[in-house]
Amino acid sequence: MRPDGSWPSFLVAGWLGAAMLFKTGWFYEAAQIQVILASRIPEMSAADVAWLSAAFRRVGISADDFVLAAARKRLAETQRSDGGWSSDDGDAFDVHTTLMALRGMRLKT
């Protein structure tokens, strides 16, 4: 990780890394990554936001966290009229993305 909290890798490495750092008690380092992730959420796909939010909730990050608030906003913007979310991998995986989104939006761990 660079001093500004960015990293030279794929975006998914950021949210998985932040979740791991949070879970192991490296809160400052996780927060550095979270700031960058929050700025990227408005351009992220529903599938990526669902995965990010589910990973963060899985490790116990509060539903009130600023990144998860931004994720909920993005998921609300990208939710289809049938209540589901589209997968980046095609229609056959929409159910998986929808379940991930629901996991990520739950208010209790």
Describe the structure.
This protein is an all-alpha fold. It has helices spanning 11-23, 27-40, 46-58, 66-78, 94-105. It is globular. The model has no long low-confidence stretch (mean pLDDT 92).
Q: Brief overview, please?
A:
With 109 residues, this protein is an all-alpha fold. It is built from five helices and no strands. Helices cover 60% and strands 0% of the residues.
Taking the sheet with the most strands, its summary is:
none
What count of helical segments does DSSP give?
5
Mean pLDDT: 92
- Share of β-strand residues: under 5%
Question: How much helix, percentage-wise, in residues?
Answer: 55-70%
End-to-end gap: 28 Å
What is the radius of gyration computed over CA atoms, rounded to a whole number of angstroms? 13 Å
**Stretches where pLDDT falls below 50 for ≥5 residues?**
none
Q: What is the H/E string?
A: HHHHH
**Number of beta-strand segments:** 0
Helix and strand composition category = mainly alpha
Shape summary: globular
Key features?
mainly alpha; 5 helices; single chain; globular; 109 residues
Topology (SSEs and partners):
Elements: H1 11-23, H2 27-40, H3 46-58, H4 66-78, H5 94-105
Helix pairs in contact: 1-2, 1-3, 2-4, 3-4, 3-5
